[in-house]
Amino acid sequence: MRILGIEGTAWAASAAIFESDSIELSKARQNAASDGVYECAELDDPSDDHVFIETDAYQPDSGGIHPREAAEHMSEAIPEVVETAIDHAQERAVADSAPPIDAVAFSRGPGLGPCLRIVATAARAVAQRFDVPLVGVNHMVAHLEVGRHRSGFDSPVCLNASGANAHVLGYRNGRYRVLGETMDTGAGNAIDKFTRHVGWQHPGGPKVEQHALDGEYHPLPYVVKGMDFSFSGVMSAAKQAVDDDIPVNDVCRGLEETIFGMLTEVSERALSLTGADELVLGGGVGQNQRLQGMLKEMCEQRGAEFYAPENRFLRDNAGMIAMLGAKMYAAGDTLEIAESAIDSNFRPDEVPVTWRGRDPVGPAGGASGRRPRADDAETELQGAEATVTIEADRVVKERNPRSYRHPALDERLRTERTRQEVRLTSEARHNGVPTPLVLDVDPDEARIVFQRVGAADLRESLSADTVGAVGEHLARIHDAGFVHGDPTTRNVRVGGNETADGRSVFLIDFGLGYATGEPEDHAMDLHVLAQSLAGTADDPEALFEAARDAYRDESDHADAVFASLTDIEGRGRYQ
Ligand SMILES: C[C@@H](O)[C@H](NC(=O)OP(=O)(O)OC[C@H]1O[C@@H](n2cnc3c(N)ncnc32)[C@H](O)[C@@H]1O)C(=O)O
Ligand SMILES: Nc1ncnc2c1ncn2[C@@H]1O[C@H](COP(=O)(O)OP(=O)(O)OP(=O)(O)O)[C@@H](O)[C@H]1O
Ligand SMILES: [Fe+2]
Asked: So where does Fe cation get bound (predicted)?
């Protein structure tokens, strides 16, 4: 099978030819499937691939990407790169074989509307010229599928660190679920805004990488909420630091340590939550060696495998569009021209994943996870941040150093979170929320001894009642003026010991909590819960509804919180 891919969401006018024999083979298997369920293209072998990519990059004279200039670039460059790719396909095609390509895949979104329209028009024209099907590819899913394909991993967690985006995805029940994402700008856009402030030419990422090599770490605000994260505070502080005459190399180093530390931490949280033991990286910022190094080290420390594709598949490129296009085409996932409109806000979780077949059997990415449970014979659990040793009636939680992080940042996070966890666990309890008693604490060693509570983690005991209780507990702590910060299905213990009034749903792990009366912060707690349900439950919507109902009944300000939650859920940041 030979597929033409066309990419042009923002800066890269790119066309590619992806050729694979093994994907064709799996298509034949699919057609033979009598039960109508696709066996799908999981037999493919990347070592057989032939990938040709032709790219013409738009380089702004000054400032960042101007949508109009980018579109002008696309209209000039797309026809040329497409012709070059078709010439290449023709050379590869055996002399008498009819069309040189089997299908045309194009990036349908997300991206800049005017650019996307030019790409879609070109794709339709080529599909008609050769009378072959059209395949509409989600650019963000392509960023991660290229890594999954080339690594040969089965069900990895995927970190996309690109210009306009930053998110962690996991596959579950036919969709890529957003486990965590940026609350404001994309990773690259954040860095590029900083370099514009300093007066460096676009794109800024490679320049920050270069300058950071000669810099000392300069501390900047670090913001992780569950598996979501924010770049706005760190970027303002970085600009301010330069204005305050902190050496620019030091600020660049601080930026890398902070931003990539956050991305690595949320990736580790996603691995821990889903029980997956494979991580792939995608997106242009993924070319950064410090980011790759941190992710690799984190994975090594927890016994997971890490894969980063070559740079030509990380930055925007049509190779990834053609590759995913081939899998979609093999699965029969093609578009009629009349339905081939672009979608500039196309989210990765909107894509029905037709090419992966059935969910893998076993725990990877699933609700059960690979971690031992607290009630198993094992007595030591590896959480996302800490090692937890379970004893008869108490547990010892130690936040071990993370060697991927800068030592100063590592020490600060471990000590602060330990203190905060102790404070808020007790405060929640005073406000009527079941939590374990704190029996002992040593902030310098980042060590806490808790009473052992519950018989299982919430993710093993999901029901409207248990999730509803979490909604009620969150309402209480919010009314008391603080948030949990990470209310996932792993951070709630259920069953076993009861409180004096017979309740047995306990909140644990308050290390990311903080004092706040802002409805938006309260809504983030609910959003984190919803995302973690989507990552672990089969019926996440119904369960989350139970949490919302209980929250509404308990809270003094549910309307304001739900209004904020609607804003958070509707965040679209691709324009
Ligand atoms: C929607 C689509 O148009 C968009 N594409 C995009 O953002 O281009 P991409 O190639 O994935 O990433 C470009 C970003 O990647 C950054 N970048 C490139 N090399 C870098 C490096 N060595 N270190 C850090 N950032 C780097 C650039 O500064 C720029 O912000 C996206 O995928 O979000
Ligand atoms: N007080 C407790 N009683 C019983 N089990 C506990 C208790 N505290 C922690 N655990 C168990 O240990 C696991 C990890 O604990 P915790 O969430 O505090 O660590 P963590 O490293 O912060 O994890 P993560 O960040 O992945 O949520 C919990 O999911 C739970 O199974
Ligand atoms: Fe991209």
From this structure: 139, 143, 316
Q: What is the DSSP letter of 572?
A: -
Check the annotation: does 397 bind a ligand. yes
**Cβ–Cβ under 8 Å, residues 390 and 493:** no
- Rounded to whole angstroms, how far apart are CA atoms 4 and 126? 9
559 classed as catalytic: no
The residue nearest atom 13 of ligand 2, judged by CA position, is 383
pLDDT tens digits, residue range 280-324?
999 999 999 999 999 999 999 999 999 999 999 999 999 999 999
Of 176, 170, 208, which is closest to residue 189 (Cα–Cα)? 208
Residue 491 Cβ inside 6 Å of ligand 2? The answer reads yes
Atom of ligand 1 nearest to the CA of 115: 3
User: Which of 3.40.50.10190, 1.10.510.10, 3.60.15.10, 1.10.3720.10 would CATH assign to domain 380-569?
Assistant: 1.10.510.10
143 is in an annotated binding site: yes
Q: Which residue has the higher pLDDT, 20 or 208?
A: 208
Q: Could you read off the pLDDT of 201-256 as tens digits, one per residue?
A: 999 999 999 999 999 999 999 999 889 999 999 999 999 999 999 999 999 999 99
Residue of 107, 119, 162 with the most ligand 1 atoms within 8 Å of its CB, for mutation: 162
DSSP 329: H
Which residue lies with its CA nearest to atom 27 of ligand 1? 205
Say yes or no: do domains 2-150+313-350 and 157-311 share a fold: yes
Task: Tell me: is residue 383 an annotated ligand-binding position.
Answer: yes
Q: Is the CB of 284 under 6 A from ligand 1?
A: yes
- Name the residue ranges covered by the structural domains of the chain: 2-150+313-350, 157-311, 380-569
Cα 508 to ligand 2 centre (Å): 7
**Gyration radius from the chain CA atoms:** 25
263 a known binding residue? no
Tokens representing residue 517 in the block: 């009366």
Is residue 109's pLDDT more than 90?
A: yes
Q: Is the pLDDT of residue 558 over 90?
A: yes
Q: How many CB atoms lie within 10 A of CB 549?
A: 15
Q: Which CATH superfamily is domain 2-150+313-350 in?
A: ATPase, nucleotide binding domain (3.30.420.40)
Task: Provide the pLDDT confidence category of residue 44 given band limits of 50, 70 and 90.
Answer: low
Distance 101 CA to ligand 3 centre (A): 24
Among 250, 333, 410, 486, the one annotated catalytic: 486
Topology annotation, domain 157-311: Nucleotidyltransferase; domain 5 (3.30.420)
User: What is the average pLDDT value for the chain, to the nearest integer?
Assistant: 90
Cα(238)–Cα(220) distance, rounded to whole angstroms?
A: 7
pLDDT in tens, 115-137: 999 999 999 999 999 999 999 99
Question: Distance from the CA of 12 to the center of ligand 3, in angstroms?
Answer: 9
Output the DSSP codes for 104-125: EEEEEESS-HHHHHHHHHHHHH
**d(CA 546, ligand 3 centre) in Å:** 37
425 close to 433: Cβ distance less than 8 angstroms? no
The residue behind tokens 């059935």 is 358
Please determine, for residue 6, whether its predicted confidence score (pLDDT) is greater than 60: yes
Mean pLDDT confidence for 334-361? 87
